[in-house]
Write a structure and sequence with these properties.
- The protein is mostly helical.
- It has helices at 4-26, 35-50, 57-85, 88-91, 93-121, 135-151, 161-179; strands at residues 123-128, 184-191, 194-201.
- The protein has two domains: 4-91; 112-201, no CATH class.
- Helices cover 67% and strands 11% of the residues.
- A three-stranded antiparallel sheet has the order 1-2-3.
- Helix 1 (4-26) packs antiparallel against helix 2 (35-50) and helix 1 packs parallel to helix 3 (57-85).
- The chain is globular and about 55 Å long.
- The protein starts with a helix and ends with a strand.
- The model is unreliable at 89-93 and 111-121 (pLDDT under 50).
């Protein structure tokens, strides 16, 4: 029987795969929407929402991130499906497919773009006080960290978004307790050719 961590990892993979297959569907590469994966995700989310008390703090944080990501995707899929059914996408397929791809690429590029800008300026900074509620900030920090490592030629294969989320959560809580502060500033910077992630107390 799979552990909670294994099932959450599978949920993360399913959400990622769902997005890929929906993109294929809207782009004309699939005839039907990926309802099987969507159904599986819905079941998993519902099951763990009802079992919240069984999850550790880090697991709840991870589930919250995944649920929010899925909710965002679901809203986008609903709107695009409605457009497709109304014929707005099919009438000008080439332009519409490009528009959908451009919209997706733009959203994906926003985070790496920040990382590229950060690399150009030498550092990327973000302030957190409630990481479990500020998932966008943690996501941007993670993207900046990965992008900086890639540009520095460092390996990123062993990095895990969920582990990174838990690290930021624990580090923030530890510093808040030790330094009696609210805000913690995280800085991604390159020092002597190596990428560093620093946590600084904000006065």
């Amino acid at each position: 029987m799979a552990t909670i961590d294994e099932e959450l990892a599978q949920l993360e993979r399913d959400i990622r795969q769902l997005k890929i297959e929906y993109d294929q569907y809207f782009g004309g590469g699939r005839k039907r929407p990926p309802t099987e994966i969507e159904w599986r995700i819905e079941l998993m989310v519902k099951r763990y929402s009802e079992r919240g008390g069984d999850l550790k703090y880090g697991q709840r944080f991870r589930l919250n991130n995944l649920t929010q990501t899925y909710a965002k995707y679901k809203d986008i899929f609903r709107k695009k499906t409605q457009q497709k059914e109304e014929g707005k996408v099919q009438r000008h397929f080439g332009a519409a497919a490009k528009a959908i791809e451009a919209e997706r690429a733009q959203k994906q590029a926003q985070k790496p773009a920040e990382a590229v800008a950060a690399a150009a300026s030498g550092s990327f900074r973000v302030v957190c006080s409630e990481p479990e509620q500020e998932t966008d900030k943690v996501d941007r920090l993670y993207e900046a960290f990965v992008q900086a490592k890639q540009q520095a030629g460092e390996q990123t294969g062993k990095l895990s978004r969920s582990n990174f989320n838990e690290f930021v959560l624990k580090k923030t809580r530890d510093l808040q307790k030790q330094k009696n502060c609210r805000d913690v500033e995280y800085v991604v910077e390159v020092v002597n050719g190596q990428v560093k992630l620093k946590a600084l107390v904000k006065a």
